[in-house]
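Question (not urgent): is this output format expected?
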Amino acid sequence: MNVKYMCFIFLLIIIPFSSFALETYNSVYCEERAPVIIDGELDDWGFVNTVPAKIEWVSNIGTPGLPRDETDLSASFQCFYDSHNLYIAVMVIDDHLVFGQEVFSKTGYDDAVGIFFDGDMKETSKEGFDENDGQIRVSVDNTGKIIIDGWGPLYGHYPYFWESIGVRAALQENDTGYNVEISIPYKILGWTEWIPNRRIGMNAHVWDDDDGGDYESLLGWAVDPDDTSHLFTSCYNQVAFTKSVEIPDTYKFKSNEVSENGTKEIVAVIGSPDQSLTFNDVFSVLHKLSISDFDTAEMMLKSKSDKKWSKYMLGMVQFDAGKYNESAETLSQLANECPDRNVALWARFHLGNTYKNTGEYDKARNEYEALISIINEDSGSLRIKNRILEFISETYEAEGKYPEAVIELRKILQEKPVDWEFQYNKTLHALVRIGAYDDVINYWEKVIQNTNEIEKQLEAKIEIARNCFYKGDYDRASQIAQELINSGVDSKTTFKAQMVLLSISRKSSN
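Got this back:
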């Protein structure tokens, strides 16, 4: 066969399976330090003078769906770099803001903005972040204090990580939604000096929560169909800084540290990285953790015990190394003494998990129940409360105390009998696992009563039939399955109903 035609056929085969085309956003840079205050106002960005890039790819992973319209959720961003930092501004239109319903590391369930970056775009197909990659997610707690979380390079995430190496962020609400403003020092991107015309890999996410439950929509700049931006950088788009700009005299230099918001307090606690060796300290520990040298990392962190950031990192390093008693001691101190409510909740949450891992179930329940008390006092997130109730149930289950486990799981189902499917599916699976079939059947019967969706009603009937089978009520299971088949439902439901009948047949033959 002619080689030219062979190549043509080969292209026809591979093109449908090729990856999505990556976009490049052209932006600007300046040689001097920019007179930008990290406050979310963005009134000092006029000299940038670029058209914002739209964040408009809609994720279909998990619970998200299409935004109702542009006022429900839409977003765009701008960015530039100066002699010291990369700056990113994200402008979000959102007609219903929900903040402060989650603890540190879970803010993606609230309204939030996430920036994913790859400073050198090398080895983009590797799994995990290297030392110049990361995810910075910005939201606020229920007092309006800024929260910066997300996955750091080389090793996980913990409170004050990004702040300790120089990241600054602010969130400012406005009439149509909110703005997020972020500055990232060169070192984090792996840049050692100022040079013109740089490029970076980047993605931007915007989460939208309208009811305090799971987030309703997730927008991204880069197409990421498998939601792997926190694992791989290969799907990131590129930002090309192609044009130099001068800062007009009308923009007077004030400060690019922070404004009088939540970040100010953090800077006062950990110090300014520009005036210390904090960055080098943190990354020295990260390198040890990246090769699982936990003992050396722990020793290095203990030598920095006077630093706020080191204590949070130490607690998690001890946990990951299996030193649960030491981790519990560190986390207990943080939970009881940290003035930052959100971080104290995070510490107590992990303290409960530490006790659960060591089999000290009474201690674990004490910490979990203390968390629920705090959440109830603050009229906090029902989602957090349900997650904690699930953990309490698991401690009872581990001890073989199934009636107590069922009581905790029932509390979850009583809050909202139909909504928040992911949490409730986990709860239902737990109830099936410990043999509480009547509770599961009651749940699905309520679903049938409370929804007009045919698909949901069919799902409920299948689940009722299955659980009737599990509990040994073969007559009712068979009746429901046969009625579904006779009614001419879709092939998928018919198959599931036939599987119930087959299971009953096999059970009867035995």
